[in-house]
Structures are given as C-alpha cells and as structure tokens.
Predict the 3D structure of the following.
Amino acid sequence: MNLLLISRPGIPLLRSLRESETAWDAIRFYGPVSLSIGVYIPVSTLAGAISLASDLKYFLKKYTTDHLFQIKPGVYYTAALTRSRYLTRSDDMSEDWPFKLVYWVENLGRVIRVKKEDWNSEEILYLTSETGENRANPICDNAELPGGYLLEVWCTKPEFEIV
C-alpha cells in the first residue's frame, strides 16, 4: 500500500511539503520520493495510507490535482474506492473489476483520464516505442514513458460514469 500525490502544474511538491512544518512532520518518516509528477510515499497499511491522506488534506487540496493509493504494483485506487473498501472491509476486488481508468500523467502535471476500454492500445505502443525501452520507477513496474506516467486506476461507479 502506497500513496501517490500528483502535483499541480509547476509546483515542486516535495519542496512545498518540506517547507510546511505540519506536512513535513506527517511524512518525513515514511521516506517520500520526489517524482517528476509529484511525490510517492511508501506506507505499510491501507489504514495508514488513508490516515496520512487525511492528515495532509489541506495540502492535497492546495498543491495536488489528485492522490491515488497503490494497492499492488501497477494498480491504483482512487480515494473514494479506497475509503469504500476500507469502510466495508471488503477484499473482493478481483481483476474483473468493471470500473477501470487509465491515467496519463504528464511530467508537467496535466492528468488525462480515459476509461480503460476506450484507451487505444496503439497509443501505448507508440508511447513506449519512442525510447525503445521503459525506465524503471518506484510507482509502477516499467510504466514511466517519455513525458509522463501511465497508470491503471480502479474507481467507483460514479467516478467511472463522469469520465
């Protein structure tokens, strides 16, 4: 379980969090990692990640466009789905979960959300073949592409219908 904070365009997120004593006190022992798209914070439990996001609520609204919870390598949940899963204590999330999005997060901070079934796989091939090889990164197995990150995000039905 990890927390990914996606920064607003032009905001060096980790530096902004370090400048705030309150935010830095909340995250410094987790070993946050600065990324071109924001900050990745390793957390050991779902409850810990939700609690940390709650502690950072003011800073999330001020400095980020979104925050996601990494459930397993390559799979992220939205905040709403994470809270719902935690409150119902359900662990029945299988690979056939119907509400999946693809987030293309550009290094400049812009986030493009597309329903997974609408995402053109040729676009993925084009983006990955530009460099010929993907670079490894902490947030997803080999998903950093030229210009940004490609993330699979599971969401709730209302979030899915809005996209």
